[in-house]
Amino acid sequence: MINRKILSLLFSIFIVVTLHAQEKIIDIPISGRFQSTSLENFFQQVKNEYGLTFYYQQEWIDSMVVNQSFDQVSIKNALEKILGGTKLTFQFFQEDIIVVPKSTIKEYSVDMEQVDLLIIGDPVNEGRYKQATIRGTVFDGKNRERLPGAVIFNKTINEGISANKNGDFVWELPAGEHELQLSFMGFEPRNQKVKLIENGTVTFDLFEESHNLAEVTVLGEDQNGSRSQMSMVKVQAKLIKELPVLMGEADVIKSVVMMPGINSVGELASGFNVRGGNTDQNLVLIDGAPIFNTSHLFGFFSMINPDAVEDIVIYKGGMPASYGERVSSVMDVKLKDGNTETLKVYGGLGIINSRVTVEGPFKKQKKSSFLFGGRSTYSDWVLRQMKNVEFQNSTARFFDVNGNINLNLGDKNELKLMGYVSGDEFNLNSNSLYSYDNTIASLNWNDAFGERVRSDLALSYSNYNFKLTETSDFGADLDYDLSTGIENIGFKYALSYLPNNSLKFETGFQGTGYRVNPGKITPVTAGSEIVSEKINDEQAVEMAGFISSDFDLSERLAMSVGLRYSHFLNLGESTVYFYEEDKTKTQESVTDVKEFDKNEVVKRYDGLEPRVSFKYDLTSESSLRWSYQRVYQYLNQISNTSVVSPADFWKVSDTHLKPLIADQLAFGYFNNSFEKNIEASVEIYYKKLKNILEYKNGVSLVMNHNIERDLIQASGYSYGLELLLKKAKGRLNGWISYAYSRTMRKTDKLLDEETINRGEYYPSVYDKPHDLSVIANYQVSRRWRLSANFVFASGRPTTLPELRYNYGGEQIVYYSDRNEYRMPPYHRLDFSITFDENLRNKRMWKGSWTLSVYNLYGRNNPYSVYYLKSSPQNLDAGLYGLFKFSIIGVPVPSLTYNFRF
Amino acid sequence: MIKRILYCLVILVMVSCEDVYIANLNESEDILVFEARITNTPSNNFIRISKTTNFYENKAAPGIPGARISLMDVHGGEVEAYDNGDGYYGLDYGAIPGQQYKLKINLGGVEYESEYETMLVAPVIDTLKVKIDTIKYYRYSSFGDPILKKFKAASSFVDLDVNEQISHYFFKRKMIVQYRIDNDAPGFGTPPPPYYGWRTLPQERDFNIAGPPEFGSFSQIKDHSIGYHKNEIGDYVDEEVLKELGILSHQGWVMILDQYGISEKTYNFYKTLKAQLEAEGKLFDPVYPQIQSNIRCVSDPDRKVIGYFELSSHNRTYYYHQGYYSAKMRYYQFDDFIPFPADGMVQQNDPPPFWEYPNKPGRPLWQ
User: Fold this and answer.
1) pTM of this prediction?
2) Phi first, then psi: what are they for A83, rounded to 5°?
3) Searching chain A, which residue's CA lies closest to the CA of residue B208?
């Protein structure tokens, strides 16, 4: 039986929830004759017939009997009749009813105002200390799982902090009384008065709201960043699952592109662009291990199973010194730890794929847990059923399996192992079969030395292989496989020290080894006429050391400084050609050839990467922030397709290909009003890039033994303004994000062949000046939820034919300057409605149906505009046409069933 | 039912759309276009000068006469071209294999020059084959049902040598269909003479180029298709008219094949042209390349010029094959080709002198 105090506490926590919950339950009509029925039996009968559970203490209802008849009387009225003249009363909570003595309600109302006072420290020591430190952990009260990133706001001093990834926080505060407000996405906020006498440890439990409201947390202060952190976006798993999506499959990448400054490359395109950067300028990490291809099914889905994701943090700027390697962004995907209390199974059934995840403890209460999940598609089978022969002749399938094991090696020692394997295969009605696979693994060991020192060791492995099997119409002896790939092994060790709440040091080092297969041709059949051919593997090592500190310069001014030093070595075995200066690199301009032995240093680059950021608090809710960062990138993706293709291969910096260097300045105004439940931010940035990769006109990049002869290095800049307005809680919540940005490039060399647009600035292919996203979620009732999002983006720059002429009897076109034109703007409205089958905690099986419509008004958004040998416009003049190709030009409904038990 | 819904949903997604796109293009200044092919066959040489027009301009730009054009070799030798009108120029010179030449053009006092190109050896065909193929393609009904369309055609293939001297080829072919209609024999007297008809088909305009497969070391290009032609007479002449005249008793094909030996650079130039014409804007299509010129303006290096000076070896050959389908169907080659007059038909006892047929006097014995 639940004792009186606990019941009282339950009331104090859940009272707000009940206001919503009551709305429907109170109207449930009951019928029946109850003559001399004990109250306990009455409760049991109602439970059996109507599924309503009553909570009470046996002693309160002993000897109470019911003598009533009800005919379609609401449960509320029935209970009022039964309990009306007694000392008991009742309250609704979710689908349950709590029966308590009337006096409890009085106590509760007092509690709500005053909240239980939590005394930290020995009262004997009261007044002895001016400052004291609270060490706390925030838990999910239901299953005792830690809540990483929970926000603790101190209403007394108008300051807030966030719990770290383990739900822990350390906060040095003036001794005395404080009113804390604890909140976490999807959980009821909790107010807690604290009397701080001396250093102490506390735990807080938060309880889920009765309904799921999508929220996104865009944090300036978080365990992942410094207190002056800006240009960072954090997306919680819950948001990812609740946005309306194509084919009903939640998608990590498609969720983050709703944030300001992050753009989608396009429909059916993998990757994303951050502040105008190329897709290869984003470092995507899963539990610390890099991913080199983020998509399944040529861009239909992201490679990350949304069920396995805890949260995603993206640094668009102001990157902590512990991160580097890519100049545009770092996207750090944290996978969920397995549930430490109970075994859970959940998943979803979609139109072309399904997924399932299992998680649980190895042993109850031992805090070591596992999580395994997988996804697979039946799109191949669906394609076979198509009428369209092109689809019948196509192949499209993928799978992925992910898993992690968390070993709790004591209170301060935690080991996490992660593994991921995926495979893709597709063929779009052609002789080309594309296949690729990813194998990723990581080990993360977190160790806390004492109270204020913590170390993180991460080991990672990532292997991406691509294969194109080309079959010939002229016989199998001309069939061949073209393979490319990249293998990456890395380690990172970071040590952080927090002497007090306003000072933090972090230092560490990391090393990454790359082995790149730029291309290999192998015959498919024995005795083939195809001769095996291979471009030498590239090997390289990138090392970095970093140090940073966050500290308060004054009460209002906080600063973070960091320095990263990166050192890159391109290693043999390789053959390097040297060319005449000031001449186009061709066979004719070769001056020398040098052979390098295995592991011999071919080329060395290094650079200092300073990071600085400031935060000035204007008020307790608003601040100004400024940041500067420099990042070196030694790895590029080689591509001459308009969107990233799985066939694009990677290349490390070498004698001729210098590292990409980006300097970025950002300035922002942030306003996070906890009280008003509104968050707003404005950021402006300017980014300067050096040694961007471009390509000579019409070059062939595949199996190119001297690719340096076809590459151009350009410079460029990006600038932009980003706005975000968010309402995170309430029945209606969501956000509006808008970005105005430009990304320009220019070739520096004066040689004709290495000059684009006469050496003038031209827009990058990812230059989309306007980008607007509006996301809205509305909780209609406890079970019904509506979501909608609208996106608008300027069209992508494109090169169009401006002139035409006859050559060889054909009409040929002469294209404009590169990216002189712009495709029509992209806009789309998506909508979804979700129905939760039941919300009862005791019900094992919990299911929900989501009906979503992608591209609700059927906009024909352009994927490409191209010149085609077809005459749509003027046959007499022999004029061929310009066509616009849209991938998805119709509304696409989908129905998904998600379950958990 | 659920299955049907599933299909519909997936179809909705997968049905990508292709629409005509009207772009708001800038008006651009016209650019000079040079198209020059110089070979070892003087009658095959030509240079054409024209201009570009704006993309949505309805009229084609006329040729530009009045240029002074000469072919120069590395030793200073120079042959001047003559003006054929309408922007076309001829050159009465057969380029010599192994020699290097460049083209020099003076138009209105402005000088243009090509790069030096090397003349290749004359190309030969190793083997020419013709076989019956079933060409298949799909059309879709208004309900989306695929309808298989197929027809029989005679496909022609060649095997070609790949060696240090020559490895890339370009083909142009002209097909002439011939047919003979025999009158029904009357009850008495001599039968009226048969009809001999012929028709020249429009020249195939595709850039038919051949090069060794991309990966590997090859001594031969095998089974390179030089095109196909349908064998149904009704596709070329009115069958009803033929039936009124009598019975189709013979059908055959004359093929005039121009084979060019081209450099790898020229092969890549044509490959780019083909890529531009065959672009479909689909997933993972490469960025469209601008066609590069090997001719530049010497007087003003910043002036844009389009065009290509192609120096290729040439060989013209004539073939005939009978117009019926059989395992024995094959080409035979002949040298004394007599040009066919414009499309027509004559009624006479003997075939016209240009008429080609099996066992024609002077031909190899047809078996």
Assistant:
1) 0.75
2) -95, 0
3) A808
